[in-house]
Design brief:
- This protein has 470 residues and is of the alpha/beta class.
- It has three domains: 18-94, no CATH class; 115-130 and 229-293 and 384-466, TPP-binding domain (Rossmann fold, 3-Layer(aba) Sandwich); 150-221 and 299-372, no CATH class.
- The chain is 38% helix and 16% strand.
- It is built from 19 helices and 14 strands.
- It has helices at residues 60-68, 74-80, 124-128, 157-160, 164-175, 180-193, 197-224, 230-244, 260-269, 305-309, 314-320, 325-332, 336-339, 344-348, 386-398, 412-421, 435-446, 449-452, 461-466; strands at residues 28-32, 37-43, 52-55, 82-84, 90-94, 115-122, 248-254, 287-290, 294-301, 359-360, 368-372, 401-405, 427-431, 454-458.
- Strands 8-7-6-12-13-14 form a six-stranded parallel β-sheet.
- It is globular and about 65 Å long.
- The termini are far apart.
- The relative contact order is 0.13.
Length: 470
């Protein structure tokens, strides 16, 4: 075995625990208080005196070559490993090389002659404008689905007043001009680099606020605006189209937390979402439905005695006791042996909470940790089962038409899949009044899309439904 080069940094202010010294020569799994688990060796470099790095075995040769060629940069090191600036971030070290369960991911064969050609991607702009323009009351409706910078709007005060952690961050968010993703990213950077359980507890509180907010929004829109709903029109037209072409399957990617589209898919296609596999039951249903950032009705089920005792007051209990994500994931949801999937490394280059343990919330929401990604502008990952991701990757490779409806094109993890897996794409249909931003966000991943694909630009969701494209 080739061990990493040991470079002790004599200028570091970090107090490396004595028992960690062996991890310069032996691999281990480093459990952070924010829930991610980093496998690898400890590295130190005199060029970066305020940090240590955890480098997985697969990348040690690359790092050694960069060091030899005097090409070590912080950007390169964070590409091939993880930077740690505060040793207290690491709450536990596990020495066995493999973690958690390693059972096979569901991978049913594709039966029959299926055509996977069209993918529809929905962003916040679609839900924020999911009602016909003629219904003017929607613009002033207090539970109109928000755009990103409206997530903590005063019109939702009756909801966020229940969440002390959310209330605590609001003054600074207001001072940051309500640039939600940028502000939350700046706080995440502090959580990531400094041991700050107080700040982390506020972000955990946001999960519960968003869950309640989008539950309320979904049920209000479904109850009040069913006669004008564009999602209803979309799914109805899609159902008619696919009934004529039974071999054709479409993919729907929804970055929204709400369940408005979910309900119309269920009713128009007579599909019941009772378990996670029902979203991608492509051998029986005409569509595959992906929610990469999670959903208001998804969660991980609490099962520790302590969490069950606090089930009526879960958000406050977690917030008041400053319970970290690591404690939640690996104590209150279950042990590491079942709350980590060994193959998560292949997807995220780290271990984290087992996304194949996500469930559909069918009873009391407080029994669950919401499965949702807080909106950051750089931290982007998928919060859906691993086999959902595998099927989404496969569909991307087969599709010919990509419809982007009310989506800014700014999800890096998804864009990276487009860059890696696109093979047959012919058309991109951008449904957004700010088309320039969409194109700008896609350019680093897809290049000049006008040279590669036919590009159709449409201003609004309603205009799209009035076109002949569906």
């Amino acid at each position: 075995m080739t061990y990493p080069l040991l470079l002790l940094n004599t200028n570091s202010d970090m107090q490396i625990p004595f028992e960690w010294l062996k991890y310069y020569q032996e691999t281990a799994n480093f459990v952070t208080y924010y829930g991610d688990i980093y496998p690898g060796f400890i590295y130190e470099f005199n060029e970066f005196p305020d940090s240590i790095f955890i480098v997985p075995p697969i990348n040690t040769k690359t790092v050694a070559e960069l060091q030899k060629d005097n090409q070590l940069t912080m950007e390169k090191l964070t590409e091939y490993g993880w930077e740690i600036r505060d040793e207290k971030i690491i709450r536990k070290v596990i020495e066995n090389k493999g973690l958690g369960q390693d059972n096979d991911l569901p991978n049913p064969a594709i039966l029959g002659n299926q055509k996977w050609k069209q993918m529809f991607v929905f962003g916040a702009g679609a839900s924020a404008n999911c009602v016909l323009e003629e219904e003017t009351s929607f613009k002033e409706f207090s539970l109109r689905p928000p755009l990103g910078n409206e997530l903590f709007s005063d019109r939702f005060r009756s909801i966020y007043n229940k969440y002390d952690g959310v209330k605590q961050l609001l003054p600074n968010l207001r001072m940051a001009k309500n640039e939600v993703e940028k502000f939350l990213q700046s706080e995440w950077n502090i959580i990531r680099h400094t041991y700050n359980p107080t700040l982390l507890s506020r972000h955990i509180n946001i999960y519960y606020y968003l869950q309640e907010l989008f539950f309320n929004i979904s049920h209000s829109i479904l109850g009040e605006y069913y006669a004008y709903n564009l999602y209803s029109s979309f799914t109805d037209r899609l159902q008619k189209k696919l009934s004529i072409n039974p071999s054709e399957k479409v993919a729907i990617v929804n970055f929204n937390y709400d369940i408005i589209l979910d309900e119309y898919l269920s009713s128009n296609f007579n599909v019941k979402f009772k378990q996670m596999d029902d979203y991608i039951n492509f051998n029986n249903d005409p569509f595959l439905y992906f929610k990469p950032h999670g959903s208001a009705n998804w969660g991980w089920n609490f099962n520790s005695p302590e969490s069950r005792n606090e089930i009526n007051n879960t958000p406050a209990w977690l917030y008041n006791n400053k319970i970290s994500l690591a404690e939640i994931y690996y104590n209150h949801l279950g042990g590491i042996e079942n709350m980590v999937h060994g193959r998560s490394w292949a997807f995220d280059n780290k271990y984290s909470v087992n996304k194949n343990r996500i469930e559909i919330i069918t009873d009391y929401p407080r029994r669950y940790l919401p499965s949702m990604l807080i909106p950051y502008n750089e931290k982007d990952e998928f919060v859906m089962p691993y086999h959902h991701r595998l099927r989404m990757e496969y569909f991307i490779g087969e599709m010919e038409d990509l419809f982007l409806i009310g989506w800014k094109g700014n999800e890096r993890a998804f864009n990276s899949l487009l860059k890696t897996h696109l093979r047959k794409l012919k058309r991109i249909i951008i449904v957004n009044p700010d088309q320039a931003t969409v194109i700008s966000n896609l350019a680093p991943f897809l290049g000049d899309i006008f040279k590669k694909f036919e590009v159709i630009q449409i201003n609004t969701f309603e205009d799209f439904l009035n076109s002949s494209l569906i």
